[in-house]
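C-alpha cells in:
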C-alpha cells in the first residue's frame, strides 16, 4: 500500500497546508492541492509535506515500484481501460526526467521558460506499451535517481521556472508536484493489481459483471429495514444528515434510500458494472472504483456502511486491511455499520443442496425476445469456509442462449473475531445483533464507533 514515509497519506493536514499553492497572476490554471484536493481526493497524497520529504520519498521510488510490481507482468490494466502497469512506470520515469532537465536548463543555462507536453502523445511516441516491465522499472528508477540529485541542488539554489499554464514553478513546487505524480501513479498500479479475494470476485463473478443487469432481480431483500436501522442510529448519535460512504454499494439501492432520508452518500465498489448502475441511480453521489483492502480515503465520513463484502475476505491479512480502510474513513465519533455472515448459522445453511432463482429480464437492456436468467447455486462447508458453486443460464425464447459458471469461497465471521478486529482498529464500542433486512437468519448487524 502506498504511504509517505513518517506520516499517513490520508492524515489531516495543518492550517499551513492551504498556503502551499498560490496564484501569481490571473489566468493561471489551478494546480497541485487546488486541483486535486488536500489530501488528493483519489490517492490520499498530503500536500503539506516539505520539499525535502518529497525528495526523500522519490529517492525510494525504484524500490517501491519494484515491490508493487513484483508479481506483475506489466500488461495488467483496469477493466475499464487506461494505461497498463508498465505504461504507468514509464510515464513516471519520463515525467521525472523532463522536470530534471527543465531545472538543469535553468541552473546551467538560465533558461526558465518551459513548455508543456501531452503525456498520451509521448506514451505513443516512446512506445510505452511495448516496453517490458523490467525495462520500464529500471528506466523509471534511473530517472528518479537523477531527479533527486537535480532537485536537491535546485532547492538549495531556490531555482524557479515559468510554465505556460501553471505560471511560476519554484523548485519546492516541482518537488511536491512530481512527488504527487509518482505517488498517485503508484496508487494507480496498486489499484490495478488488486490482490484481495473480494476485488477478484467483484471483477470476475458473472453476477457482478456480465449479468449485472439482473442483480436487482436476484437480490430482492427489502431495503427499508437496513436503511431504517442505520438512519435511527445516526439520528441517535446526533447526525440526522450524515456524510456516508457506502462501501460495496452494489447497484445503489441502499445508498439511494439513505439519500432520500437526507444523508449525503458516496458510492464505492470493486465492480465497474455495479458501480455504473449505482451512479446512475444516485447521480449526485461521488462514485469510487476501489478494492476495499487498498482503499485510502480521508477521514471525512460520519458513517461507513458495508453489507456483505467482508465475507469475501478470506485471509487474515485481507480482513485486517479492509477493516483498517473502513475505520480510517471515519471522522472522530463516526459509526461503522456492517452486515456479515455469522459462522455457525452459515454452516447450518450450507447443506450442499442446489437452489434456483429465476429473473425475468423484460425491461432490461437485453436484446429483444423473451429472456430470463436462471441462477443456480450450491453451497458447502469446508473447514470454516463456504464453498459456493454458481451456474448461470440465459434463456431466450425457450432455449439456452448462454451458459457460464463461477466458483468462489467465502469466510463467515464469529462474534469474537469481529469484537477483536474492530477494537484493534480503534472502534471501542461494538454492538452485534441479529441481521436486519435479510430473508435468512445467518446474518449479523454490527455497529461500531
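Residues out:
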Amino acid at each position: 500500500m502506498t504511504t509517505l514515509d513518517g506520516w499517513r497519506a490520508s492524515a489531516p493536514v495543518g492550517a499551513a497546508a492551504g498556503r502551499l499553492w498560490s496564484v501569481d497572476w490571473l489566468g493561471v490554471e489551478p494546480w497541485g492541492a487546488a486541483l486535486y484536493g488536500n489530501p488528493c481526493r483519489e490517492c490520499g497524497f498530503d500536500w503539506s509535506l516539505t520539499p525535502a520529504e518529497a525528495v526523500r520519498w522519490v529517492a525510494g521510488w525504484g524500490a517501491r515500484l519494484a515491490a508493487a510490481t513484483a508479481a506483475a507482468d506489466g500488461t495488467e490494466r483496469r477493466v475499464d481501460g487506461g494505461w497498463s502497469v508498465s505504461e504507468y512506470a514509464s510515464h513516471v520515469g519520463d515525467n521525472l526526467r523532463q522536470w530534471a532537465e527543465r531545472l538543469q536548463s535553468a541552473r546551467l543555462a538560465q533558461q526558465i521558460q518551459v513548455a508543456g507536453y501531452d503525456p498520451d502523445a509521448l506514451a505513443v511516441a516512446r512506445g510505452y506499451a511495448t516496453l517490458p516491465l523490467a525495462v520500464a522499472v529500471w528506466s523509471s528508477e534511473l530517472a528518479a535517481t537523477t531527479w533527486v540529485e537535480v532537485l536537491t541542488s535546485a532547492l538549495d539554489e531556490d531555482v524557479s521556472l515559468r510554465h505556460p499554464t501553471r505560471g511560476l514553478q519554484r523548485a519546492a513546487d516541482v518537488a511536491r508536484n512530481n512527488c504527487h505524480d509518482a505517488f498517485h501513479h503508484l496508487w494507480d498500479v496498486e489499484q490495478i493489481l488488486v490482490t484481495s479475494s473480494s476485488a477478484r470476485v467483484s471483477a470476475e463473478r458473472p453476477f457482478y459483471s456480465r449479468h449485472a443487469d439482473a442483480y436487482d432481480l436476484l437480490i430482492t431483500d427489502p431495503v427499508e429495514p437496513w436503511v431504517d436501522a442505520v438512519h435511527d442510529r445516526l439520528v441517535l448519535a446526533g447526525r440526522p444528515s450524515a456524510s456516508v460512504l457506502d462501501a460495496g454499494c452494489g447497484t445503489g439501492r441502499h445508498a439511494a434510500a439513505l439519500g432520500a432520508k437526507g444523508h449525503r452518500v458516496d458510492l464505492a465498489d470493486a465492480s465497474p458494472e455495479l458501480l455504473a448502475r449505482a451512479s446512475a441511480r444516485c447521480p449526485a453521489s461521488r462514485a469510487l472504483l476501489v478494492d476495499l483492502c487498498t482503499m485510502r480515503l480521508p477521514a471525512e465520513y460520519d458513517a461507513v456502511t458495508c453489507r456483505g463484502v467482508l465475507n469475501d475476505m478470506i485471509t487474515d491479512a485481507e480482513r485486517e486491511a479492509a477493516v483498517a480502510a473502513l475505520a480510517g474513513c471515519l471522522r472522530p465519533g463516526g459509526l461503522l455499520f456492517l452486515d456479515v455472515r455469522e459462522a455457525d448459522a452459515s454452516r447450518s445453511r450450507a447443506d450442499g443442496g442446489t437452489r434456483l432463482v429465476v429473473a425475468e429480464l423484460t425491461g432490461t437492456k437485453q436484446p429483444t425476445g423473451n429472456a430470463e436468467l436462471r441462477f443456480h447455486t450450491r453451497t458447502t462447508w469446508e473447514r470454516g469456509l463456504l464453498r459456493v458453486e454458481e451456474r448461470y443460464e440465459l434463456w431466450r425464447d425457450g432455449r439456452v442462449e448462454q451458459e457460464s459458471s463461477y466458483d468462489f469461497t467465502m469466510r463467515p465471521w464469529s462474534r469474537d473475531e469481529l469484537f477483536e478486529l474492530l477494537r484493534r482498529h480503534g472502534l471501542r464500542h461494538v454492538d452485534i445483533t441479529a441481521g436486519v433486512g435479510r430473508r435468512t437468519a445467518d446474518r449479523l448487524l454490527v455497529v461500531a464507533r
